[in-house]
Amino acid sequence: MKKKFKLSNLYLVVIFIILYVPIFYLMFYSFNSGGKMYDFEGFTLDWYKELFQDSRLLIIVLNTIIIALLSAGISTVLGISGAIAIWYVRKVYAKNFLLSLNNVLIVSPDVIIGASFLILFTFVGIKLGFTSVLLSHIAFNVPIVVLMVLPKLQEMGASLIDAARDLGASRWDVLSKVVLPYITPGIFAGFFMALTYSLDDFAVTFFVTGNGFTTLSVEIYSLARRGISLNINALSTLLFVFTLLLVVGYYFITKRNARPIGLGARK
Amino acid sequence: METRSRNLYLIPYVLWIALFVITPILLIVYYSFIDIHGNFSLINYQKFFTPVYLKMTLSSFWYAFLITAFTLIVAYPTAFLLTKTKYKHLWLLLIIVPSWINLLLKAYAFLGIFGTFGFANAMLEVFGIGTKQILFTDFSFIFVSVYIFIPFMILPIFNALDKLNPTFVDASRDLGASGWTTFWKVIVPLTIDGVKSGCQVVFIPALSLFMLTRLIAGNRVITLGTAVEQHFLVTQDWGMGSTIAVFLVIIMAVIMFFTGNRKRGL
């Protein structure tokens, strides 16, 4: 029995190594003065210097962050209103219908979302660029926020609102003093998920980005297609650190709520 | 009064659904009937049922199947062993972290690892096998895809295993079932929903990932997703691209129907 336990630990360790090796491989060679992703010659920070002098890339990073923050913010507002609307709907089939429509964009492959949005923007006449990327990020973030907020609303129960109404609260009071404070953890989780989805997205952005405007993922793709350049390694090291900070932040937010909301639907 | 406030919330949300969920689907369907010259025709559907496209669809399915199968084989034991560890939620978080790293960076890492002078070939050299072409092969495509999808498969299976009441396992053992029988007759049936949703999360994207086929498989593997991207952004034949997209949506709906209806299934 003891030996079996050790074997299982070994399996987990191997999986962890496989999952993390590529990431650390990238980070390790970002310090290589040799300029290639093999034959580590010597330690250098040149690639980081080059990265920070590359004003084009810095603008792209800024674009990516602006898109992520704006789309996460707007989609959070839309998502909250959507979640409350779904929650108010009493008929079961209407509720299920809305929920299935909500889930369409979550389960659709990115290529389809990207292609159909490309058609949509061309059809409506929106120029491809900042606006189209922002709109599509908002669009695919809304259902995620809805799914994060809805369980909190269902947890709340209708009697709380009835009580507030009976005690003379206006509609606005009910929203701002009862509903929103109760669902705040869900709102934070939704905003956070939207942020990471937006930062991570490649395929949808790739379709609707046009010529002038680029986000980080699209830029990495076009750089990687040209071959290996250690700038990308340096960039990925910084991104990894940033992601870790986000994860730690997310972990503490969910920890404070005593149960992990984002990590699967745990009841 | 309640209806009025409900409608107030409903309006922006329904507008969003109409604009970004329903309209795009209708547009895709509409464009699938438009040929490359902008006329209404069924030529795209005719083209889809020629051997070229059918073969591509089949091979796309085959790759997606292989990717899903390998991911499941790796992920199930991992999820199972994770639930047995002491700080399981911390370990789970550590498994999830790599999935939050940009997918393209992970693919890019494998360009280095599988390259001619990369880590993998250096290892092969050490074991005396010698340098091999690893990048731009089926193996590298499937390996990298499985690598990327593992966390997404582990998550739902972990949740299912975590919810499993351990007394069932104890009861099964007390009643004389072997560890193997307990696993196949008790644990697997009770966690099959997690497996189903895991397969769903992996299979559908595996049909449609195009950046991996471009970067890792060097255009050798053409999936349905690659074909859609090709038609939309390279050859500018939106009609044909939409037709393939329509079929992808149909396939997706079928898969969802078979793996998704948990409540009715039980």
UniProtKB/TrEMBL annotation, chain A:
Pfam family name, one: BPD_transp_1
GO cellular component, one term: plasma membrane
Keywords assigned: Cell membrane, Membrane, Transmembrane, Transmembrane helix, Transport
InterPro entries tied to this protein: Bact_Polyamine_Transport, MetI-like, MetI-like_sf
Cell compartment(s), UniProt: Cell membrane
Chief location: membrane
GO biological process, one term: transmembrane transport
Keyword field contains Cell cycle: no
Membrane-spanning parts: 12-31, 57-89, 101-126, 132-153, 174-196, 202-222, 234-253
Topology versus the membrane: Multi-pass membrane protein
Domain of life: Bacteria
PROSITE patterns with a match to the protein in the record: ABC_TM1
Domain spans labelled ABC transmembrane type-1: 61-250
The family this protein is said to belong to: Belongs to the binding-protein-dependent transport system permease family. CysTW subfamily.
Name listed for the protein in its UniProt record: ABC transporter permease
Organism encoding this protein: Perspicuibacillus lycopersici
Lineage: Bacteria, Bacillati, Bacillota, Bacilli, Bacillales
TrEMBL record, chain B:
Keyword Nucleotide-binding (UniProt): no
Pfam families cross-referenced by the UniProt entry: BPD_transp_1
Lineage: Bacteria, Bacillati, Bacillota, Bacilli, Bacillales
Annotated InterPro entries: MetI-like (IPR000515), MetI-like_sf (IPR035906)
Provenance organism: Perspicuibacillus lycopersici
Topological category with respect to the lipid bilayer: Multi-pass membrane protein
Any Gene Ontology CC annotation: plasma membrane
UniProt keyword annotation of Transmembrane present: yes
Ranges annotated as spanning the membrane: 12-33, 61-83, 90-119, 139-158, 201-218, 238-258
Alphabetical UniProt keywords: Cell membrane, Membrane, Transmembrane, Transmembrane helix, Transport
Protein name: ABC transporter permease
Protein family per UniProt: Belongs to the binding-protein-dependent transport system permease family. CysTW subfamily.
Localization of this protein: Cell membrane
PROSITE patterns the UniProt entry points to: ABC_TM1 (PS50928)
GO BP terms, alphabetized: transmembrane transport
Residues covered by the ABC transmembrane type-1 domain: 57-259
